[in-house]
């Protein structure tokens, strides 16, 4: 069985559409999302609606949770764009999804949407955090830096980000799992179009987001 994990769209519809086209070629049997659908991009409404239409199972992200009681200009803007009903749907998402004992998905770490575990973490730390999920493959998102690590009987993988990569590679990233093999897949998309989209959107501090699209690095 082939499973795709797609996460961290962050309102970047141009990147999401490119990944959807790539998923048609990959043709997974099952697709799940890892949260952070809307905040920090020009198309929060369209991204949320697209995922709802597709009926993918998925989990709540930290920035989905932040939209419930927004602080900061960009979070408030995204929350206002979405409106009450879409925000309520986001808040209804679970914190964990699993495919039997094969794959377990959380946004960040089990029970915590905010803790960041980076690729530099050692094997013991990854085992202590993700081993208790009890799956052969533990997938998390949140850090926007894709990787795959095999640790004895456990594979720990990060899906990276569709809409806001932070590893210096501006291509969208998602994860494909097939028969125990786990692979990060990168997808080219029209970054210039996404930049133009965000600059025309009215999103506060749009210049910073445009720079992140171009550089695939976080802006403080």
Notes on the structure:
The protein has 220 residues and is of the alpha/beta class. The protein has a single domain (2-215), classed as Metallo-dependent phosphatases (Purple Acid Phosphatase, chain A, domain 2, 4-Layer Sandwich). 35% of the residues lie in helices and 20% in strands. It has a five-stranded mixed β-sheet with strand order 3-4-5-7-6, covered by helices on one side. Strands 2-1-8-9 form a four-stranded mixed β-sheet. Helix 2 packs parallel to helix 4 (73-91). The longest helix is centred in the middle third of the chain and has 19 residues, at 73-91. The chain is globular. The model has no long low-confidence stretch (mean pLDDT 97).
Q: Any descriptors?
A:
globular; four-stranded mixed β-sheet; 9 strands; Purple Acid Phosphatase, chain A, domain 2; five-stranded mixed β-sheet; single chain; alpha/beta; 220 residues
